Amino acid sequence: MEPSPQGSPQESPQGWPPPQQPHLPVPPAPYGMPGPPPPSANTNGLAIASLVTGIVCCVPPLGMVLGGIALGQIRKKGERGKGLAVTGMILSLVSTLLVVAGLATGAYREVYDGMRDAADEASRTRSTFDLRKGQCFNSPGGTIEAETPDVTIVDCATPHDGEITGSFALTQFDKWPGDKAIEPVAEKRCDVLNSAYAMDTWAIPDDAWIYYYQPSADSWRLGDRVVTCSFAAEKGKLTGSLRSDATTLDTHQVAFLKPVNLIDTVLLEEPEADAEDDLDANVRWAGKVSSTLSGTVAKLRAHPWPTAAERPLADLVEELEAAREHWAKAAAATDADVFWEHYDPAYDALPADMGAKARAALGLTRTPPEPSATT
């Protein structure tokens, strides 16, 4: 047998290869000091939570608490995440120191007040097409403008530019009709909405005018079809809500105003043409006035009024009935001369104050508006 090369292990006499030398085992770590975590070890959840809390600064001391608990669990369980926990604790410590400094100097109070004011301002800002009935608002610059995209909602008890009385959709148009087609529709419908919103018309100040926001060509393409109606100050500001409807009036006040207001409405429908030029239109109108007075009288007689209002209401009914007879004669006229013969007496027979004493007895405004007021 030839000798084995120098340094090579000798074979056994039987020809088997020499036994392999066993690897020495890695000595265990000292007692109480776990070795490095194996590659498959989980990352401690509290360490992650500590880092996140430290970054977002939601509760600054919490990050330090979570980080401390996480380090203890990592040592015992051999988990990963020591760096995350330490970083979270540091960030939380910095945040805590900043909070303490802010509270001590009052800086946070200033920031909070600024944020609160900004949030309040944003919450009160509305698109002119997102206003709701009963809201009072101010327009940018302090004047009502048709093209204003946004307004600010304010308390009606404070000075304001306008008060929303309602809205309606333009369902009669399939495509953009143009401003000139919308305006007469808006004026007529808003007049009705404003009258229903402020039934005590004598309480409407002289400088309150009917106003509305209507869709533009651009907003129409985006689906806007709503006209928003309001009372607006011609000059200066309005103060206090003008609302006087079933939500603010009692049953007796509503029972009085509904039929009596119809008289003013029908009188405003007088034809522009005189009886000489259009007798038929004037006769029809006189007949409508007579019919309205008859209906008003019937409703006033049928309602059970409070004792204090019974006498004033009876006097008003008597005056309205006398006026109705003149309007009925004007409605029966066959020529212009006969119509004019009853026209002036019919107007003169209408009570000048339209029941001021009855209004006072019912707790309504008893001073009529100036003739120039638009209501």
- The number of distinct β-strands equals 6
Secondary-structure content class: alpha+beta
Radius of gyration from the CA trace?
43 Å
Overall mean pLDDT score? 80
* Tally of separate helices: 11
Specify the overall morphology.
Answer: elongated
Percentage of helical residues? 40-55%
Keywords, separated by commas or semicolons:
single chain, 375 residues, alpha+beta, six-stranded antiparallel beta sheet, 6 strands, 9% strand, disordered N terminus
How is this fold's topology laid out?
Elements: H1 45-56, H2 60-77, H3 82-105, H4 107-124, E1 125-127, E2 136-138, E3 150-154, E4 162-169, H5 179-197, E5 208-213, H6 217-221, E6 226-233, H7 251-267, H8 279-302, H9 307-331, H10 336-349, H11 356-361
Helix pairs in contact: 1-2, 1-3, 2-3, 7-8, 8-9, 9-10
Describe this structure in words.
There is one protein chain. The chain has eleven helices and six strands. It is α+β, with helices and mostly antiparallel strands and 375 residues long. The chain has three domains: 45-100, no CATH class; 123-247, no CATH class; 249-375. It has a six-stranded antiparallel sheet. The radius of gyration is 43 Å and the shape is elongated.
